[in-house]
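Design job #97: recover the sequence.
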C-alpha cells in the first residue's frame, strides 16, 4: 500500500470523506490532491473521456469537475471545455492543473452549483459527470436542465463507482428523456459504471 492509500485510510474515518462531497479549506485542498493523484480516479476520468469520443470542434461541459483531471483530458481533444464545481477549492486546483489551456481560452472554469447551470457558451456537444450524480438534488430535474444545454443529439456520460451490485444511473437518465442508452463497465474494485446517452 502506497503513502497516499495509507493517508486516505487514516483520514477518511476521521471526517475526511465529507471533504470529497463539499471540499473547503485545507482539508478540501487535501481531498483535491488525493482526487488528482489517486491512480483509480485518474483512470476512471480518462476512461470516461475516451468513451465520449470527443472531436476537435466540439464543446464539452463537465459537472463536478473537481481538481480538473477529466478537464485536462478533454482539453487535449475539444475546442472548448467548461468545468463546473460548487467548490472554489476545486476550481482553484482545476485552474492550476489546466493553466495553459485556461490561458489559451480552451478551458473555462466556473464555481457554481448544479442547480445553477446558466452558461453563455452553449449549446454543448457533450457533457460528463464523474461520481457526482448521486449528490445532485432532484437528479431527474437536473438532467432535464442539462439536456437543454446540449445540442440535439448531444451526448452525456454519467460515471459512478457503485458500492452495491447493479446500481447505475440508467433509470434516472431514461426518466429525464435521454435516448440510446448504453452502459460500459471498467474493471476496478469496485467496478465503475458509465451510462452513455443522447439528448433528443
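Job complete. Output follows.
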Amino acid at each position: 500500500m502506497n503513502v497516499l492509500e495509507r493517508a486516505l485510510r487514516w483520514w477518511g474515518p476521521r471526517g475526511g470523506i465529507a471533504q470529497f462531497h463539499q471540499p473547503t479549506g485545507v482539508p478540501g485542498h487535501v481531498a483535491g490532491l488525493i482526487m488528482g493523484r489517486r491512480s483509480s480516479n485518474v483512470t476512471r476520468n480518462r476512461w470516461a473521456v475516451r468513451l465520449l469520443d470527443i472531436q476537435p470542434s466540439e464543446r464539452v461541459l463537465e459537472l463536478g469537475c473537481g481538481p480538473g483531471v477529466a478537464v485536462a483530458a478533454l482539453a487535449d481533444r475539444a475546442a472548448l471545455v467548461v468545468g463546473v464545481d460548487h467548490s472554489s477549492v476545486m476550481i482553484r486546483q482545476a485552474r492550476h492543473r489546466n493553466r495553459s489551456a485556461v490561458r489559451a481560452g480552451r478551458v473555462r472554469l466556473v464555481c457554481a452549483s448544479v442547480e445553477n447551470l446558466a452558461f453563455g457558451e452553449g449549446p454543448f456537444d457533450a457533457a460528463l459527470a464523474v461520481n457526482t450524480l448521486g449528490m445532485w438534488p432532484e437528479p431527474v430535474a437536473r438532467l432535464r436542465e442539462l439536456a437543454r444545454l446540449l445540442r440535439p443529439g448531444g451526448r452525456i456520460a454519467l460515471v459512478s463507482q457503485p458500492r452495491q451490485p447493479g446500481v447505475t444511473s440508467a433509470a434516472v437518465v431514461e426518466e429525464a428523456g435521454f435516448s440510446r442508452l448504453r452502459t460500459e463497465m471498467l474493471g476496478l474494485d469496485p467496478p465503475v459504471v458509465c451510462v452513455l446517452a443522447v439528448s433528443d
